[in-house]
Amino acid sequence: MSSLPVAAVLPELLSALRHAPQVLLNAPTGAGKSTWLPLQILAEGNINGRIILLEPRRLAARNVAQRLAELLGEKPGETVGYRMRAETCVGPNTRLEVVTEGILTRMIQRDPELSGVGLAILDEFHERSLQADLA
């Protein structure tokens, strides 16, 4: 198991995800919330559908997706992909999609139920914006 701080709460978090519609996790910078945790949820979480990971900035979205894919030994667009304005890197087997606020807003406008999405993770929630709050 990882030595990252979030590893200690993984079993409790996975249990909470099975029993609650919303789960909040507060952990310090570098705890593994953006990189290690989404991959563990993907592997062990029994999530039906894709996982959407919201990042507040384009650069963060691309970098997080690239790091997640690298940790899987893949390139972005395989298991992990990303979407932002004017740039999409997803494939038919993408299960974890890192998106920006504008993309998530458009996804909800087109499909308010987010069909095919089993979990939405709002990363960097403290960097809230009106667009993210509306989504």
From TrEMBL:
Domain of life, per the record? Bacteria
MF terms from GO for this chain are: ATP binding; helicase activity; hydrolase activity; nucleic acid binding
Keywords (alphabetical) are: ATP-binding, Helicase, Hydrolase, Nucleotide-binding
Q: Which residues form the Helicase ATP-binding domain?
A: 14-135
Instruction: Indicate whether Nucleotide-binding appears among the record's keywords.
Output: yes
Among SUPFAM superfamilies, the record links this protein to: P-loop containing nucleoside triphosphate hydrolases
- Under what name is this protein listed? ATP-dependent RNA helicase HrpB
